[in-house]
């Protein structure tokens, strides 16, 4: 069998979400680094595979699949021994999808990417308070998701957990998760840190946090 190829870089949260999925599935794959600092995602060869010039990208045979959420759903559906990480039950799946769309639009795009771009790529040293508020609002939502359940979409670990932990473990570079204010969110983070393959996320998350910490900024407004 030809191994799937994951294009990405460890500092990228959505790449780490896919790496957690691959580890959970124990699926062998090749990993090709795309250095975003050197704009390698804009190479002609890469743009042919992903005109959106984002990582992660999964190449599996003739298929090129972009977007971490689409990739994770594909991987579990194609290679999972069972459907536990992405349930076939429609109601359970809808909740997993809900959490992943939330991660994509609210957590990653609104809270994380905009701020990370300002600091890491545009070299801004002042950021508006509203960008910090977007992060606490995201934490508020995740805390509210938890009622009695263990994971973000029920009592079973799913790809929605991989998605959300990848961005939340990066957001802590800007706003630490206060265990007193967010007890359920904090407990969930600790739970995921116990996964035997959690290094697939933590190594890159530490790189991301270090990169942010190396660029001090002040909050204005
Ligand atoms: N929603 C997408 C986000 C992908 C994304 O924006 N990736 C960033 C890195 S974290 C990227 O590739 N940026 C480079 C670019 O847009 O050129 C996903 O989940 O895969």
Could you explain how this protein is built, in words?
With 221 residues, the protein is an alpha/beta fold. It folds into two domains: 5-79, Glutaredoxin; 90-220, Up-down Bundle (Glutathione S-transferase Yfyf (Class Pi), Chain A, domain 2), CATH 1.20.1050. It is 54% helix and 10% strand. It contains eight helices and six strands; from the N terminus they run βαβαββααβααααβ. The strands form two sheets. Strands 2-1-3-4 form a four-stranded mixed sheet, with helices on one face. A hairpin with a 2-residue loop joins strand 3 (57-60) and strand 4 (63-66). The model has no long low-confidence stretch (mean pLDDT 97). One of its GO terms (molecular function) is glutathione transferase activity. Residues 2-83 form the GST N-terminal domain.
The CATH architecture assignment of the largest domain turns out to be: Up-down Bundle
Order of helices and strands: EHEHEEHHEHHHHE
Top CATH class of the largest domain: Mainly Alpha
Overall helicity: 40-55%
CATH topology type of the largest domain:
Glutathione S-transferase Yfyf (Class Pi), Chain A, domain 2
| Overall 3D form | globular
> How would you sum up the major sheet?
4 strands, mixed
Mean pLDDT: 97
Q: Given the helix and strand composition, which structural class is it?
A: alpha/beta
**Spatial order of the strands forming the largest sheet:** 2-1-3-4
Specify Rg, calculated over alpha carbons: 17 Å
The small-molecule ligands in this entry are: glutathione
Q: What would the keywords be for this entry?
A:
Glutaredoxin; 8 helices; 2 domains; alpha/beta; four-stranded mixed beta sheet; globular; two-stranded parallel ribbon; Glutathione_S-Trfase
